[in-house]
Design goal:
Blueprint lengths: L1 H9 L4 E6 L9 E6 L7 H17 L13 H6 L6 E16 L5 E17 L2 E4 L8 H11 L1 H7 L1 H21 L22 E2 L10 E5 L2 E6 L3 E8 L55 E2 L4 E2 L30 E2 L2 E2 L4 E2 L30 E2 L2 E2 L5
Helix pairs in contact: 1-6, 2-6, 5-6
């Protein structure tokens, strides 16, 4: 709801940044910057702040890394990067798509990551350096965080919910850019905006002293110390993704059931076209473990890319019943009595006739594009 409100009223996406109040001071306070400003009093604004702050804590080695083998930016610094530096890192969306299911449910898909840029002080403000070296400690940390992003999202709740926010923002972009009219209640689900609270906080710091003492003729000449600063924020960058012409995904459509709040049914006759962001949309394949009938059962095991298409009456009945399965990988299909065995390759076609299986009142199973290992017909299963 908040993502849709921001996209609809402002025409953009939610942004957050944690910046130094006075960049010229090493220990300056940091201020929360939200766009639009009313995000400061919402759950979305708080989530973006918590995710960004925890990213800084992890990158500076304040906590144990979420994946074994990951190093903090200070660990990379100790490996030989001797210069004093200031840099920023932030969350981004690297890939964004909208998929559609067979019953026109919109399913957002994202791939996220972290980017880093070295900064320089110019005219009293911190600006991105023209070139950021690939061996920069924060760049190395951002690369390994991006590589392990999905695994980190499973272990860090704040990162997981930030990814869900990115999905909601993509869905809002699709609805707004497509001029799809929604009831005002869609934008009121998040409740009223609360007080923004404190917008300036102390700077996060993690001290690791590294001093060099220069001695000449038995006396200390100079003591050199250095420091490193990390800033950043959340900038999904969804405007980088262009909306392609609606088309059906390469893998077709598959059945998927979501709750009423998660399903966005739009377009003529309740159907929504497929949409891609910067690339072809790929339909989401649903893995099915079994399909139950009304008066009996029809059981099948499907692979991850299988597509199931059937009728409303799924149970075998005595007389004229002909179930249809298309593109379906199954291990067992049961019929009222007897057994029918067949072995088929992934691209073979099996078509049942009356003479191929024991009949009970005219029952004749028909299978098209069906990869089966065994067909049995025990009574009542």
């Amino acid at each position: 709801a908040v993502a849709g409100r921001g996209r609809g009223h402002r025409g953009g996406e939610p942004l957050f940044s944690l910046d130094a109040v006075d960049p010229t001071k090493l220990n300056s306070m940091q201020k929360k910057v939200f766009e639009p400003e009313w995000l400061a009093g919402t759950s979305v604004g708080e989530l973006m702040f918590q995710a960004d702050y925890h990213l800084k804590e992890l990158s500076m080695g304040e906590y144990e890394q979420p994946v074994v083998g990951m190093k903090s930016c200070f660990d990379f610094y100790m490996e030989g990067f001797e210069q004093e530096w200031t840099a920023r890192e932030w969350f981004i969306v690297r890939k964004a798509e909208i998929h559609t299911s067979e019953d026109s449910v919109l399913i957002p898909y994202v791939k996220m990551g972290v980017e880093a840029r070295e900064q320089v002080l110019k005219n009293g403000n911190l600006e991105d350096a023209p070139i950021t070296r690939p061996n920069h400690p924060l760049v190395k940390y951002a690369e390994q965080f991006t590589h392990n992003f999905d695994l980190i999202a499973e272990r860090k709740g704040v990162v997981y919910h930030l990814r869900e926010l990115a999905k909601a923002s993509i869905l809002a972009k699709y609805l707004v850019d497509g001029d799809i009219r929604l009831d005002s209640s869609w934008f009121d689900l998040a409740g009223e905006v609360q007080s923004a609270g404190v917008l300036e906080i102390p700077q996060l710091w993690n001290e690791r002293h590294n001093s060099q003492v220069q001695v000449q003729d038995g006396s200390i000449v100079d003591i050199v110390s250095s420091g490193r600063n990390v800033f950043g924020g959340v900038d999904f960058g969804l405007d980088r993704f262009s909306v392609a012409a609606p088309r059906v995904g390469a893998m077709g459509a598959v059945a998927a059931r979501l709750g009423p709040r998660a399903a966005a049914r739009v377009g003529p006759m309740g159907r929504a076209p497929s949409l891609t962001f910067g690339g072809p949309a790929r339909a989401v394949a649903q893995s099915l473990s079994g399909v139950a009938g009304v008066s009996g059962s029809l059981r099948a095991v499907a692979g991850p890319s299988a597509v199931f298409s059937g009728r409303s009456a799924m149970a075998p009945r005595v007389g004229g019943f002909a179930p249809r399965l298309s593109g379906f990988a199954a291990s067992r299909l049961t019929t009222p009595q007897g057994s029918l065995r067949a072995v088929a390759g992934p691209s073979s076609v099996f078509s049942g006739r009356t003479a191929m299986a024991p009949r009970l009142g005219g029952f004749a199973p028909r299978l098209s594009g069906f990869a089966a290992s065994r067909l049995t017909t025990p009574q009542g299963v």
